[in-house]
Amino acid sequence: DELTSPFGSNPPAKTSHTSQKSKKAKELCKHSGDQMIIDAGQKHFGAVVCNSCGMIYTAASPEDEAQHIQHHERFLEGLRYVGWKKERVVAEFWDGKIVLILPNDPKYAVKKAEDVREIVDNELGFKQVSLRCPAKTKIYLFVSNEKMIVGCLVAESIKQAFRVLSEPGAVPSPGRDALQHHRAWCCSTEPQPAVCGVSRIWVFGPRRGKGIARRMVDAVRSTFMYGCYLSTDEIAFSDPMPDGKLFATKYCQTPNFLVYNFLYNN
C-alpha cells in the first residue's frame, strides 16, 4: 500500500523508506548473530582481495586498510620500470616490450630483475625455492607502455625433461570442480633431451588474459639460443600448478608437454 503510481506527483514518504531499512537490518541481525562488522551501507566489508597486489585484508578496518596501502605501494614500486640506456629489447608490441636481463648485465639491471623475481616468488609460493644455476639464468620482463613490469619469465638451461602422461578416462563429471581435473599429473620416467626450462612465468593480475605469457614464451624460443628457434619439444615447464598446466597445454597444443625440476627428478 506504500507504492505510488509512477505518474503521481506525490513522492513516497521518507518514514516508510526508513522503516523498510530498519526491518531489513533486523532481519540481517537475526540471520547473522555472529557478524562482527556492522553493515552501514559501505561498498565493501569483510575479507577483500586486492586485484593488483593480491593482499587479503579486512575492509572497514583502519589497521588492515593502512597495512594494505603500505603493501600495495611497495608492490607497485617494485614493478615500476625506469629503464636504462643499454637495455636489451628482444620484442616490441603495441602494448609494451620484452626486455631480457642476463646474469652479467650491470648491477642495477640485475638488482631490478632480482626484485621482480622476489615479487613473483611470493605470488607463486616459491619463497624458499632458489634458482638451480643463477649464472645460466635469463630473465624476461614484459614492460607496458606505462613503464610497469606486468610480466616475468625466468628461463634456465637444462639437458633433459620428462613428458606428461595423459590421464586415462580423464573426463570431468558435471558436478566436479573444473580445476580438480588438472591438479594431479604424472610424467614418464624416460628422459628426453631438452634445452630450455621455464622456471617461473607470471603475469600481473589486471593484465592477464591479454596474451602476455604466450608472447614471453615466444620470445624465449627465439632468443634463448642464438640463431635458433626452439620447438615446443625443446622447452619444458617447472612442476606446473593448475593454471600453469592449463597454459602449457594450450600453448604446446597438447596435454603431453615436457616438465622438469619436480620432486621425482630431485
UniProtKB/TrEMBL annotation:
Residues 192-260 form the N-acetyltransferase ESCO acetyl-transferase domain. It is found in: Nucleus. This is ESCO2 acetyltransferase. Residues 35-74 form the N-acetyltransferase ESCO zinc-finger domain. Residues 1-25 are annotated as: Disordered. One of its GO terms (molecular function) is zinc ion binding. Pfam families: Acetyltransf_13, zf-C2H2_3. It comes from Oceanites oceanicus. InterPro entries: AcTrfase_ESCO_Znf_dom, ESCO_Acetyltransf_dom. Keywords: Acyltransferase, Cell cycle, Metal-binding, Nucleus, Transferase, Zinc, Zinc-finger. One of its GO terms (biological process) is mitotic sister chromatid cohesion. Residues 1-19 have a biased composition (Polar residues). Belongs to the acetyltransferase family. ECO subfamily. It catalyses: L-lysyl-[protein] + acetyl-CoA = N(6)-acetyl-L-lysyl-[protein] + CoA + H(+). GO terms for cellular component: chromatin; nucleus.
